[in-house]
Design a protein that fits this description.
Layout lengths: L13 E6 L2 H11 L3 E8 L2 E10 L8 E6 L14
Parallel strand pairs: 1-4
Antiparallel strand pairs: 2-3, 3-4
Length: 83
Amino acid sequence: MSQGTSRAIPGLHHVTAISGPPQDNLDFWVRTLGQRLVKRTVNFDDPGTYHLYYGDKDAAPGSIMTFFPFVDAAPGRAGPGMT
């Protein structure tokens, strides 16, 4: 890369997190926060799990938050790799 060339990332398309039960996740993001369920697919690494996409009314890049909901997910804990 030549001097003076920016390596800045112009923005994020979406952020993905792990959550508990899918219905609780849906209720919070849609009913409480007023976001739109943009898409529901499967987690391609674990096809038995949904991949839920929420966003603004236009599903604009940068507004998207996605989740892999796991019914029996334990609460997160502080430690290495935690953001």
